[in-house]
Specification:
Layout (H helix, E strand, L loop, with lengths): L9 H14 L6 H5 L4 H5 L5 H4 L19 H10 L27 H4 L21 E9 L5 H9 L5 E4 L1 H6 L1 H9 L3 E4 L12 H19 L5 E2 L8 H9 L3 E2 L4 E2 L12 H16 L8 E4 L5 H17 L2 E4 H4 L16 H5 L26 H18 L1
Parallel strand pairs: 1-2, 1-7, 1-8, 2-3, 4-5, 6-7
Helix pairs in contact: 1-16, 10-11, 12-13
GO biological process, one term: fungal-type cell wall biogenesis
InterPro entries: Glyco_hydro/deAcase_b/a-brl, NODB_dom, Polysacc_deacetylase_ArnD
Keywords: Carbohydrate metabolism, Cell membrane, Cell wall biogenesis/degradation, Chitin degradation, Cobalt, Glycoprotein, GPI-anchor, Lipoprotein, Membrane, Polysaccharide degradation, Signal
Length: 393
């Protein structure tokens, strides 16, 4: 057999192989994946065994979650909380029908922007940063496969944020999800498949939260204690389920509409206008006694590019830009006590990550064997060797 390198200039071919060898990306570790600078390469799928072997224990990607048959942990949890979930609050239809009571008995955000539950057992949602002139900074719908440029930008600014992760995205891009914690960001849940939660049954709503949280725990190693409802669609029935799972409901009051472009009523210009008017009211002192939360997305290149573009202006009009949990002094944002957030005071004095309790157990749970990361390189090295031997032959 003719070795393929013999067909063209041998030196050129070897050079090509060497370059390939140097550039072969390591797609088996969070660090390797974070080093990829080509967004198209980052967005090609990669196998990640620790997740692949577990997918049988999770709902299908982007499928409405339901408790899987035989999942005793999920079943037990649901059985232990289901009796506390009101059955008097009906499953909703969207958009809110005109006959929905103007008294808003269910504190249905989609109908009235209600954020203070009518049920006394449920704490109010967080829709603003309590600290003056402070932006509670965060992004929905990640992890997006092409997020390295954005995360690199945040790193260059020493800026941390809150990321509301979709379980199905975490399962598809686990190494991207891990980077968020490594970089010192806060992670909240944003459901398994992104449904409008008030329109589904209580058991499905439970499963949407449960499997999202379990996937974050599996992949990133932490159990979130906060969530954001997709589309903001929440009422007291859904709040009660989240509350029973230990999840604080994080809303917003201002919206860039960056993920709602429809080429018609909402265009790229609308998003820029929204950013600009938010920046305007901030500069007029609107947030001088209570800060703000603005809805923005990690979703795609456009939403992340807008975030990068407007960051300098936001920095000018807010004294502080911090993850939402930091603005709440939520120094233990996860069930696992070893992963901390700095307090607000610590953050604004420059300690933007909590070095006292670093995520030292990160990845240990699911790390692939150390030698696996060399596999792609070893394959190329073997190819090189084979070519060389074939030439000598
Ligand atoms: C509102 O109208 C729909 C259909 O028109 C009906 O099914 C529903 O029961 C009504 N809801 C209330 C609260 O009256
Ligand atoms: C992530 O961003 C890329 C680049 O903008 C986009 O093509 C892709 O659809 C996004 N992924 C998801 C799941 O939205
Ligand atoms: C958006 O995409 C362009 C072209 O691929 C890339 O150079 C840029 O870094 C991306 N921006 C962000 C914020 O992801
Ligand atoms: C956070 O802690 C600081 C310092 O103790 C305090 O001034 C501030 O009110 C706290 N903020 C919240 C939201 O608890
Ligand atoms: Zn969303």
């Amino acid at each position: 057999m003719q070795p393929f390198c013999a067909r063209i200039s041998y030196a050129l071919c070897m050079l090509g192989l060497l370059v390939l060898n140097v550039q072969a990306s390591d797609r088996t570790t969070e660090q390797g994946e974070a080093a990829i600078s080509n967004p198209y390469e980052e967005c090609t799928s990669y196998g990640y065994e620790p997740v692949a072997t577990q997918m049988k224990n999770y709902p299908g990607l982007w499928q409405l979650a339901a408790i899987l048959p035989g999942d005793s942990a999920a079943t037990d949890k649901w059985n232990s909380i289901s009796s506390t979930i009101s059955t008097n609050i009906p499953v909703k239809m969207l958009p809110p029908p005109s006959n929905y009571s103007s008294e808003d008995p269910d504190c249905w955000w989609t109908a009235t922007q209600c954020t203070t539950a009518k049920l006394s057992s449920i704490p109010p949602d967080i829709s603003a940063s309590p600290e003056p002139s402070t932006l509670g900074y965060g992004f929905d719908d990640g992890p997006n496969c092409s997020h390295n440029a954005f995360y690199d930008f945040l790193q260059s600014q020493n800026q941390k944020a809150t990321f509301y992760f979709i379980g199905s995205n975490v399962a598809s891009f686990p190494l991207e999800a891990q980077r968020a914690l490594t970089d010192g960001h806060e992670i909240c849940a944003h459901t398994w498949s992104h449904p409008a939660m008030t329109t589904i049954s209580s058991e499905n709503a439970f499963a949407e939260l449960w499997y999202c949280v379990q996937m974050i725990k599996l992949v990133i190693g932490v159990t979130p204690t906060c969530w954001r409802p997709p589309f903001g669609d929440v009422d007291d029935r859904i709040r009660a389920i989240a509350n029973a799972l230990g999840l604080q409901t994080i809303m917003w009051k201002y919206d860039t509409a960056d993920a709602s472009i429809n080429g018609n009523t909402i265009t790229e210009q609308t998003v820029e206008d929204n950013y600009n008017s938010f920046i305007d009211i901030a500069s007029q002192g609107t947030f001088s006694s209570v800060g703000a939360i603005l809805l923005t997305h990690e979703r795609d290149n456009f939403t992340m590019s807008e975030a990068v573009k407007f960051y300098p202006q936001l920095k000018k009009v807010f004294q502080h830009i911090v993850p939402v949990g930091v603005s709440l002094n939520k120094t233990q944002p996860y069930i696992e006590a070893e992963y901390g957030l700095p307090s607000f005071e610590q953050y604004i004095s420059g300690a933007v990550t909590n070095r006292l309790r670093p995520p030292k157990h990160l990845h240990q749970l699911i790390q692939t064997p150390a030698n696996n990361r060399w596999l792609p390189r070893m394959r190329l090295k073997a190819l090189l060797l084979w070519t060389l031997v074939a030439q000598l032959h």
